[in-house]
Amino acid sequence: MTVHGTFDPAFSQVAEEFAANLADRGEVGASVCVIVDGEVAVDLWGGQAAPGRPWTRGTIGHVWSCTKGATALCAHVLAARGDLDLDAPVIRYWPEYGAGGKGGTLVRHLLAHQAGLPALREPLPPGAFYDWKLMAGRLAEQEPFWEPGTRHGYHALTFGWLVGEVVRRVSGRSLGTFFREEVAEPLGLEFWLGLPEEQEGRVAPTVPADPPREPPTFSLRAFTEPGSMQALVLANEGGYMAAGESDSRAAHAAEIGAVGAITNARGLAGMYRPLSLGGGDLVSREHLALMSQTASAGADTVLLVPTHFALGFVKAVDNRHLPGADREGVLLSQTAFGHVGMGGSVGFCDPAARLAFGYTMSRQGSGLGVNPRGQALVDATYQALGHRRAYGGIWYAANP
Questions:
Q1: Contacts of 7 (CB under 8 A, 6+ apart)
Q2: I need a surface site. Which of 206, 217, 373, 399 has the fewest CB within 10 A?
Q3: C-alpha dihedral (248, 251, 254, 260), degrees to nearest 10
């Protein structure tokens, strides 16, 4: 398949790996963008957006949990302005949240996946994810699965309403509106939490992953233990995870702050660009340092594999010692932070390397982290940086 776009010759290996993904690794359609020192070094796209429709420069797609990076950034913008105290109890901003014994939950617990609300116990009605008031209300009234702050577990679908409702209460604007007005529009990004209808024709539908020969431990628990947290995460979601539903107009239009964003690699890298340069107009350098620090790490109560989070962002975690689909981690520099999306999309920044990176695709992989297609691009990017300039001894986790 033809690869389109531009790249700095110093990053030719990224272009080679991107072409190899399309030719040899099952990529259907994808985009990759690398920004170094604030300048675009790689901006490539290729493959098919849909049968008979090529992936063009303007193609956009569903980036799943890469959305969490955008939602977390909104909270950090408010915190950096002094409008939100990350160490304050959530009830300072959202009084109803104190129900069910959650009065001691801190805002940082929501960001660090320590809130104890990875799922809802009571059945959700069809279309619940498109009703912000319903979802925020259900979460506010529920008892947590564990004492907030005592352990962590990935809030795969609930993160967006938990953090997003705090953003809404503090700013007086919906999460999608705040992101558009304070991040996307000032940075000139084609990146939406709530896609306008006139943009719908640009979206590349998701191509689901092939069933894995050995499912991740999280999925195995969900399928074999109906009452488990894992089963509730996957099954109690109002139909959003049903085949094809996430590609519906209703799903794209909704502000789903954990998994609903629509953009491309240029949008993901562009969002992280100011952070790669010290914070830009979004946050101060001092607050940027807080954003990159580890907030929770170790055995994940929900995913059942090691995970590593900053406040709202994924940090590098090397799970290659684990069997099967559990082995796919997030192999980045230890100074990097960002977020992966279900199936392998990823956006992140590495302030030490002055790097911002984005990769999006339509065909999903089956693991829980960055799959081999995306990891090949990340590895090639760091290798190019190593050859391009002195790199201060900082390297990505996969480096031998």
A1: 14, 15, 41, 42, 43, 44
A2: 399
A3: -130
Catalytic residue status for 248? no
In angstroms, the CA 308 to CA 300 distance is: 9
Per-residue model confidence as pLDDT tens digits over 173-188:
999 999 999 999 999 9
Confidence band (pLDDT; 50, 70, 90) for 389? very low
**Nearest Cα to 292, choosing from 305, 307, 279, 306?**
279
Which pTM does this prediction carry? 0.96
Cβ-based neighbours of 373, under 8 Å, separated by 6 or more? 21, 25, 26, 27, 30, 344, 361, 365
Cβ-in-10-Å burial (0-12, 13-18, 19+) of 323 comes to: exposed
Give me the phi and psi of 94, to 5 degrees please. -135, 80
Q: What residues form DSSP beta bridges with 53?
A: 50
Q: 243: which 2 tokens?
A: 């085949």
Q: So what's the pLDDT on residue 329?
A: 87
**Of the residues 31, 65, 219, 276, which is catalytic?**
65
What does the alpha-carbon distance between residue 151 and residue 298 come to, in Å, rounded to a whole number? 9
Identify the CA nearest to 367 among candidates 23, 1, 65, 19: 65
* Pick from 342, 290, 345, 336: nearest CA to 317: 336
- CB-based contacts of 55, cutoff 8 Å, min separation 6: 29, 30, 31, 45, 46, 47, 48, 49, 204, 362
Could you give the C-alpha distances from 141 to 126, 137, 145, 162, in angstroms and in order? 20, 6, 13, 12
Q: Inform me whether the pLDDT recorded for 196 exceeds 60.
A: yes
pLDDT at res. 388: 56
Across the beta sheet with 60-62, what order do the strands follow? 203-204, 60-62, 262-263
Q: Tell the residue number behind the tokens 């279309």, with chain if given.
A: 127
Number of H helices, E strands in the chain: 13, 12
- Residue-wise over 344-365: b if at least 16 C-beta within 10 A, else e? bbbbbbbbebbbbbbbbbbbbb
- Is beta strand 296-299 parallel, antiparallel or unpaired with respect to 337-340? unpaired
DSSP 204-224: EPPBPPPPPSS--HHHHHHHH
